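[INFO] parsing input record for 3-oxoacyl-ACP reductase
[DEBUG] input buffer:
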Amino acid sequence: MSSTRTVIVTGASSGIGLGLARAFLARGYNVVGNARSPERLAEAAASLGHGERFVGVAGDIADPATAAQLVEQAIARFGQVDVLVNNAGFFLPKPFVDYSAAELESLLQTNLKGVVYASQAVARHMIERRQGHIINISASVALQPNLAVPAALPVLIKGGINQMTRALALELSPFNIQVNAVAPGIIDTPMHDPAHRAFLDGLQPAGRVGRIEDIADAVLYLAGADFTTGVVLPVDGGMSSGKW
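[DEBUG] output buffer:
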C-alpha cells in the first residue's frame, strides 16, 4: 500500500469535479478521475498536469462496470482507494408538471445510480482495508427547497442521497469508514449564464454565489476528518438556514 492517499472523483472533467481534482492534486493526493467523455477527460488531464498522479477513466458512472473499473485502476496504479467523492450529476430545475419521463430517467441514472454503484464498488475495498472516506455531493436545495428555484425531482433524489449518507455512515462505522456529504448552494461554474449572475447572487443570504474553492475546502476537510460521519454539510452562504 502506498503512503500517498488516493481519491476517486466522479464527474471530474469540468466544474466542481475538475476543481476537486485540482485541489486534491495540490494537497499531494493521487487522483483517479471519471467522466463520460474521453475527449473532455483528456482535456481535463492536460489542464491539471501532474501526469503521474492523475489517471482518467472514461465511462458512464451509471454503469456498474465503470464503477468497478475505477476501483480496479486505482488499485493497479496506486495500490488503494482512500477517498471517494461522488460528484457526477446535473441539476435540472423546472416546474414539477413539466418533467418528462426521459428527464426523470436521466436524473435517476446519473444522480442516483451513479452514487450507488460507485459507493458499492469502493465500500467493498474499504471494508477489506477497514478505513476510508466516502463523500457525496448533494445540494442545498434538498435541505431547504426554494420557491424561486422549482426543482422537485432533484430535491427528491438529492434528499435521498442525504438520507443514504446517514444510513451508510452507521452501517460502515464498524469498518472505520466515514460517510459524509457536502450540500453546495449555487456555485460559480460554466453551467451558469453570466447574464443571470445578479439573480443568482441574490438567492444566498451571503449575497454572492459560491466559489469552487469553497466546495473543495469542505471536501478536503471531510476527507481528513476521522471523527465526523453521517454529516450533510451545507456550503451555501446561508441558503439552507430557512426562509429569509
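[INFO] The longest strand covers residues 177-184.
[INFO] shutting down worker
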